[in-house]
């Protein structure tokens, strides 16, 4: 039996997280995220503010039709308006129509916000808090009270700030949540204030913490509050949120559970954390943070030869937790800083067994360092490194040969884009000669640029022999100038990321000619995709 003290996780990605600049979630996006969080075992999911916009209204309707399996979906709103009756407030009617068991209500803790933000008296603000909670409680709702700007309010007028909490508690709030709304409080202040407030509240009061990251300490602030006795932690997946974001649950949960021995999720749910982080970043159409603690792609990546050698003997030497415990994995990064240990470990991940004493291993390492000196960067293009390794080992069969290509580009201002527009049409035509299975083919294709046209022509030629190619597509294309002082003669590195709907891989090319660098990356990308789909044929000698 797990006797660790439980911490209730409250996710507000769908409401507070959606306030991040550049993030926009559709109704279907919100439903997908809610169901994923439900699957992961998050007990409270804040769905939005019913009545604030039509999308949030429909979201709660959809969940009434098809409820979540275990999570409590929570509606969010503010206290009634000044000098109005709660029963007459249309906003509260929308909250009731959402038919959630739990409602999170926020009210003002800071006297400055009461007098200058709400433009009302301190007594009226207390009435707004108490009457709104009592009204919702009378209609069967359970209340989480978010004390907005709590820490600023307490620092400026502790007596009044405490009155707001006691008013909420007396009216029937079951949880009181301390909110660092401006994100300007530091961990030592958080701990001190939480400790003082607990002494001034009835025993067994259920308390929560809600922190923002404007000072870069949202996670540390939440941890400080928990160590002082707070039982609920509010945050967002990947730390999404307004301004600098909210406390990142993907960092908080492992720290609480694996480092501080609190109980947040079941172990079989915790292993979904990395996948959940990446899935939600994809739904939000935001690039995952590869260097995020715990769930980032680089969180357990090892590059230096000494590190790799030590980790091979005992992972504890350079890993603070087991990556599999949160659904991540160890990665051995290949670069010019690599040693034989990197090559051996990376080969093993490709299903290739090498002997450290074998000269082939040193040949691979030597070739790697030579190419990295020329500008290649295999740590970002592991697919290209596997192809390199198989070449040295004599395990790379040529599934096709390029016998030449030409690309013709027309830059025309006479376009039908928009009348009187200064935009140019960039039409490209690629001609490519390919040899496959002893047959020579000449194909032509158009594209909206030279790389697009080249990719289309190559696919057109190869898809007749390898139908799998129809499912390969580019997900990212990056160009970097390696020696800017050389001007237009500078060497260029191109990284192309691919997917077949199930797997992702990255290939690269380097050349002083950007078309040639792109060509290298595109050709290797298609070849590697075939290696994944047709391993026995592709690796045959």
From TrEMBL:
Residues 7-271 form the Pyruvate carboxyltransferase domain. GO terms for molecular function: (R)-citramalate synthase activity; 2-isopropylmalate synthase activity. Its EC number is 2.3.3.21. Coiled coil: none annotated. Pathway: Amino-acid biosynthesis; L-isoleucine biosynthesis; 2-oxobutanoate from pyruvate: step 1/3. The keyword Transferase applies. It catalyses: pyruvate + acetyl-CoA + H2O = (3R)-citramalate + CoA + H(+). InterPro entries: 2-isopropylmalate_synth_dimer, AIPM/Hcit_synth_CS, Aldolase_TIM, Citramal_synthase, LeuA/HCS_post-cat, LeuA_allosteric_dom_sf, PYR_CT. GO terms for biological process: isoleucine biosynthetic process; L-leucine biosynthetic process. PANTHER family: (R)-CITRAMALATE SYNTHASE (PTHR43538:SF1), ALPHA-IPM SYNTHASE/HOMOCITRATE SYNTHASE (PTHR43538). This is Citramalate synthase. It comes from Lusitaniella coriacea LEGE 07157.
